[in-house]
Amino acid sequence: GENVEQHPSTLSVQEGDSAVIKCTYSDSASNYFPWYKQELGKRPQLIIDIRSNVGEKKDQRIAVTLNKTAKHFSLHITETQPEDSAVYFCAASKGSASKIIFGSGTRLSIRP
Amino acid sequence: GAGVSQSPSNKVTEKGKDVELRCDPISGHTALYWYRQSLGQGLEFLIYFQGNSAPDKSGLPSDRFSAERTGGSVSTLTIQRTQQEDSAVYLCASSLSPFTGQLGWNEQFFGPGTRLTVL
């Protein structure tokens, strides 16, 4: 079955700097890759997703890149702000499958 | 309702007792998912429903875990003979449908979770 590895497990960056979180997946048939943000004590919320027919997607300060050959995808947050502090989860799934496999999460801290 | 709701929000039980966790998905959402999140850990997939059927039960940790969904709406996750290692936050999510088209997936909306503590 699918296996998703995520790193780093913790990341601390200076406010205003960029943060990058990387994930790899094992099943080459996976074609949907969402990213969820979970603030302390709150539920996960989708922040961006990418499908296998594109290599990059941007939404304001957030971008995700996908390398299908290498089977890895990354989340990029630019101009980080205090409200970006949270745990971020990557995930992978097949369009014809019924479940989404999550990575183990990255705890991002923004230093003032 | 406006979002996915779960009850109870907190449940403390003694080892060996059975517990039932409830999830009310967003109205009209045909897909429903259960996940488990242990302290400081990631999201572990448990089971998925499309309507009232569960095409994928592969994530259930043991035969002590079961889930059902009736009327294509409310779902209950039952844990029998609870063990201390079952302590975790159990999250439910729903989506309009599992996926749309060849490459589409619909966003999953998560509930607030049920924090289960087994003493």
Which keywords apply here?
heterodimer; A: 112 residues; mainly beta; six-stranded mixed beta sheet; five-stranded antiparallel beta sheet; B: 119 residues; seven-stranded mixed beta sheet; four-stranded antiparallel beta sheet; globular
Task: Summarize the topology.
The complex is a heterodimer of chains A (112) and B (119).
Chain A lengths: L3 E4 L2 E5 L4 E7 L6 E7 L6 E7 L4 E4 L2 E6 L4 E6 L8 E7 L8 E2 L3 E6 L1
Parallel strand pairs in A: 2-11
Antiparallel strand pairs in A: 1-3, 3-8, 4-5, 4-9, 6-7, 7-8, 9-10, 9-11
Chain B lengths: L4 E3 L2 E4 L5 E6 L6 E7 L6 E7 L2 E4 L8 E5 L5 E5 L8 E8 L13 E2 L3 E5 L1
Parallel strand pairs in B: 2-11
Antiparallel strand pairs in B: 1-3, 3-8, 4-5, 4-9, 5-6, 7-8, 9-10, 9-11
Characterization of this structure:
The complex is a heterodimer of chains A (112) and B (119). With 112 residues, chain A is mainly β. Chain A has strands at residues 4-7, 10-14, 19-25, 32-38, 45-51, 56-59, 62-67, 72-77, 86-92, 101-102, 106-111. In chain A, the strands form two sheets. In chain A, strands 2, 4, 5, 9, 10 and 11 form a six-stranded mixed β-sheet that branches. In chain A, strand 9 (86-92) and strand 10 (101-102) form a beta hairpin. Chain A starts with a strand and ends with a strand. The relative contact order of chain A is 0.35. The model of chain A has no long low-confidence stretch (mean pLDDT 92). Chain B has strands at 5-7, 10-13, 19-24, 31-37, 44-50, 53-56, 65-69, 75-79, 88-95, 109-110, 114-118. Chain B contains no helices and eleven strands. Chain A binds chain B through residues 1, 6, 31-32, 34, 36, 42-46, 49, 51-53, 89, 91, 93, 95-105, and chain B through 33, 35, 41-45, 48, 50, 55-56, 58-59, 91, 98-99, 101-105, 107-108, 110-113.
